[in-house]
Give the backbone structure.
Amino acid sequence: MSFLKVESDVFHTLQIEKIVLFLLEQQGLLASKLEKLREQHDALEQQPEISQITELREGYRVVGYDLLKLLYFVEMNAIGLRKILKKFDKRFRYRFTDYYVKSRANHPYSQLQQVFKHVVMCQTQICFAFLLVGSISIFNYACKWGFNIQGLGAVVGAVSRNLHELQDCQGSYLSIYDPPALPLQDPVVDSIKAAVDRLTHSTNFLNFMAQHALIMQEELPAPAEEQIDEERYHYVSLLLNLANTFLYMVNTYIIVPTADNYSMSLGAAATVCGIVIGAMAVAQVFSSVYFSAWSNRSYFRPLVFSSIVLFVGNAMYALAYDLNSLTMLLLGRLFCGFGSARAVNRRYISDCVPLKIRMQASAGFVSASALGMACGPALAGILQINFKIYKLTFNAMTLPGWVMAVAWLVYLIWLWFSFKEPSRDVEENNSPHASDSETAEKNTLEKGLKQPLLITSEEQQEDDEDAEAEADGSEEVSQESRRPATSIASAYRLLTPSVKVQLLIYFMLKYAMEILLSESSVVTTYYFSWSTSTVAVFLACLGLTVLPVNIVVGSYISNMFEDRQILLASEIMVCVGILLSFHVIIPYSVPQYVCSGLIMFVSAEVLEGVNLSLLSRVMSSRLSRGTYNGGLLSTEAGTIARVIADATITMAGFLGQSQLLNITLLPSLLICVISIAATCFTYNSLY
């Protein structure tokens, strides 16, 4: 009985029925206004006058701005509903969100669906019907298709289409001496389109690519943030951060095709390549933390330190051949890992790039990583030469180290003369603690999230009395709830089951990809006798699939299916790729290895984008800033997965190369099955 009482109170607090009824009422008013404007439009076609056209366009603009307010109302209520459910889960330690969504969202007359259903769903059918029967009828038609929310799509189509027609009509009455001009879309249409895209989480290629970066931001950023970003933004500095990302990924994968041969030349087994490749990831586990903390004070100095350490590490890697020292080889790779500044690159984009181009910058970050991943093995395939200068040997094994050492030296010179350190005064003067009015506004928002979204005057009076009694305590709670995590332990305590599952999925896909890439040279040499150049071409081709696949998924598939549906389907395809990779059929053929590897790699790339998108949505806002942020947690999860995968390759090598493939694939399969089961368990909470 107590649970039913709590459940009833929560449903009363949410008051979704009032939201839906208000939304239906406003849609009806908008449809009525559009019908009247359409009648004026039809009358105007018989006796057109420029003044009447201008007046009619202004009428459509007014409807457009009313629609914009209504879209903002829906967005605020959707965000508020999600936050209320998350707060309830956290406070009562009960997975109420899962129960609520499961019991309400799938009902044929669910009011919850009216808040969260996509605005543009069935928009094509709605707009087509509008052309036939007019605004009032299309409103009824929209109700038949999906009740209230989809009717907004008809209003959007009506406003934009009529404004465009009137603009063309007005343009035909201009003076013949005026130069022809291309028609410009009305600003209100652009604003409505942006609001619809934000509300529906509709995506395109840049959005989908930017999701890979996991550069988190607030759901409704403050208008003042744009001015702050403009003062701190420097284009060349952004390019330097992207160049750092590209070079580091090249540095990571340039040794993969030759690491087994390098290990054998120093007297070790071929499978020691797992430790050689993984040494960089081991160091990155620690470097990500101190670089993230360092970026709180500076961006320039961490990048300089990173470049110097990477220059030294690559030089040590190259010199290990002439010194005949496996220890020097491993130390060189460790130094390279200690120079990983990806946390700084992410933080710079998040803090210093203006909001209007942050999505493009995030997509650039991911594209630079993908391009570096493809260029690394390809460059190793080109460096198939052998010569000596004095006592230094330059061959296929040492040239990757020498080439990267020169590249980091050139980058360091460019960085020293071109990077502009962002002003810290702007950040401090505009911090959340610098403005009392901003603090008061945030306190009001926090209190609002604990109240019904639509309430009566009597309820408002009761809530005001309760708020006065709890003013002191709520202020302390709200201040605490906005503070970023101060340690890994405090960050971990903020992780909900949904977030933990998404981090597990990220761990799984990085583990599977690292197994595929790191053991490729050993496996292909054993089964197919591939040369270094052939392995390099295979790995480069895998890397080159990243951008085309993301174009298809980001531009089309993400707009047709929910993220959680794509997530589950991608996990299943990764599992299929792993199963097809096992050496069961004798002989093990090149088509089987290539096709299974392609399925696994492409599915993992798709999975990574959707996974990080959902992770940014279900993660606490306290993890969007500070040293121990969401980006750091995902980086640590992925890096630890790579370390374990490379260690697995080396340990499996003791059982012989004939058993290497199947033994390394077994943990991948087990983790993948567990992640699929965990996804199904939290499926209803992935909104």
